[in-house]
Amino acid sequence: MRRTSMMLAGAAGLAVAAFALAQDQSDEIAKYREMLAGDNPAELWEMKGEELWKAKAGPRQATLEACDLGKGPGVLKGAYAELPRYFKDTNKVMDLEQRLMYCRMTLQGLTEEQATAAHFGSTDKPSDIEPMVAYITAQSRGIKMNVPMNHPQEKRAYELGKQLFYYRGGSHDFACATCHSGDKMRIRMQDLPNLTKTKDAQAAYTTWPAYRVSQGEVRTMQHRLADCFRQQRFPEPMYGSEAITALTMFLARNANGGVYNGPALKR
Ligand code: HEC
């Protein structure tokens, strides 16, 4: 596994380099990408995720290989490009992380607490979820986003997500839209995508999850949104909540037609 150790060294280098990267400069990230010569440390998460996916676990000692992510049991290719979507068996619209939680509970017999443990990992408490999400999403690389909106519940989730996107509140009276519906907006040195525009929405959505250079971890969409709730001075949303799925539905559907290209590498 020469490649793995090389990439580990690369990841460690990046963590150190992240110090030097006090504030975002898009060209700095471009330089790191060049340095890595196309290697993204997220590949390590993908590899670990594949192992976890295929390993017997939980009270039922089952693997997750029979998990249905919307395209039939065990079908991973292209599944993420069509999520969130309506699932008949739960009668709910679910995003990837909710569905993964559901599969771990139903197939492996984990409790909800176990299936959501360390959903945002750290060095001393690594996540099983982030690697599995990296593995699953990677199977949609190169595939066009094609989030369905046929079922009434899919439409409902989209509308709810849209309302949440424009809902103002909190100490600063911010909405997602405050920071993400103008062109060429920046906070400090960070470019803010205009998520109401197809091109920006596609570029943003199709690159999550991402290996965050500043955090040395692969972060999922749930993490991205939890962090933006923080930026909005809202209380931290519940992991896997209906509100996050609705917002994800709004963002994902607006990215339809964009080619999925995650897990990516970000500041
Ligand atoms: C106070 C401003 C602010 C608010 C409010 C805010 N965000 Fe953000 N958002 C940011 C910043 C800053 C970044 C870039 C963060 C970084 O690079 O670390 C970002 C990044 C993102 C990204 C990733 C973009 C990419 O290209 O990778 C998404 C998606 C996103 N926000 C969605 C939302 C949603 C949905 C909401 C409402 C719940 C929201 N944001 C509220 C400031 C905000």
What does this structure look like?
The protein has 11 helices and 7 strands. The protein is mainly alpha-helical and 267 residues long. The protein has a single domain (41-266), classed as Cytochrome c-like domain (Cytochrome Bc1 Complex, Chain D, domain 2, Orthogonal Bundle). The strands form 3 sheets. The protein has a 3-stranded mixed sheet with strand order 6-5-7. It has a two-stranded antiparallel ribbon with strand order 1-2. Strand 5 and strand 6 form a beta hairpin. The radius of gyration is 18 Å and the shape is globular. The model is unreliable at 1-6 and 12-23 (pLDDT under 50). The structure holds heme C. Heme C (HEC) binds at residues 24, 165, 174, 176, 178-180, 187, 190, 192-193, 204, 207, 224-225, 228-229, 231-232, 247, 251, 267.
In short:
This protein has 267 residues and is mainly alpha-helical. The chain is built from eleven helices and seven strands. Keywords: Electron transport, Heme, Iron, Metal-binding, Periplasm, Signal, Transferase, Transport.
Parts with pLDDT < 50 across at least 5 consecutive residues: 1-6, 12-23
- Structural class designation: mainly alpha
Most strands sheet: 3 strands, mixed
Q: CATH H level: which superfamily?
A: Cytochrome c-like domain
Q: Whole-number radius of gyration?
A: 18 Å
Q: Could you say which overall geometry the principal axes of the C-alpha atoms support? A: globular
Which CATH class?
Answer: Mainly Alpha
CATH topology: Cytochrome Bc1 Complex, Chain D, domain 2
Spatially, the strands of the biggest sheet line up as 6-5-7
> Which bin fits the share of residues in helices?
40-55%
Give the overall pLDDT as a whole number.
90
